[in-house]
Design a protein that fits this description.
alpha+beta; two-stranded antiparallel ribbon; two-stranded antiparallel sheet; elongated
């Protein structure tokens, strides 16, 4: 069926697709969040690779590098985080990415006893990084959003 409006023909039929991207969100016919998180990880990785040389630079302090992570890389992940229902696989993927960024920021550590350089363990990042990890940040922001929604009232 075609509609003529202002001299322009509009076709009212829609193509059926498995998934589509609208602005920054990927929607699937299965309503799966995994594709959205995969897309966020891809965008976050692209952002990370743009600044990875800066994050490994010895000229900048670790605090400045963490601020860069929080203000440049983390927001790329947290677009539309309010709609995410994270399962363990997605949580693990987000933690793996964040730990990779922290490895770049903090670099290797010199073992005083063995006098060798070694990679930091994941649990050591919690001592060095005082802010909440990416999963806790998502949960805290989601709770804050739920509070705003609760305060909105019925109308």
């Amino acid at each position: 069926m075609q509609i003529l409006k202002f001299g322009i023909h509009y076709d009212s039929s829609f193509e059926r697709v498995e998934e589509f991207k609208y602005l920054v969100t990927i929607s699937t016919n299965q309503n799966s969040i995994q594709e959205e998180i995969k897309s966020r990880l891809k965008s976050g990785n692209a952002c990370y690779h743009l600044v990875q040389n800066i994050l490994s630079s010895s000229l900048l302090s670790k605090n400045l590098k963490i601020k860069m992570y929080i203000t440049i890389i983390l927001p790329v992940f947290l677009v539309l985080y309010k709609t995410w229902l994270l399962i363990l696989r997605e949580e693990r993927r987000l933690r793996v990415f964040e730990n990779g960024v922290f490895r770049r920021i903090f670099g290797p550590k010199r073992d005083k006893v063995r006098r060798e350089w070694r990679k930091l363990q994941n649990v050591e990042f919690h001592d060095l990084y005082s802010s909440p990890n990416i999963l806790l940040a998502i949960k805290l922001r989601r709770m804050r959003w739920a509070g705003h929604v609760a305060c909105m009232g019925e109308k």
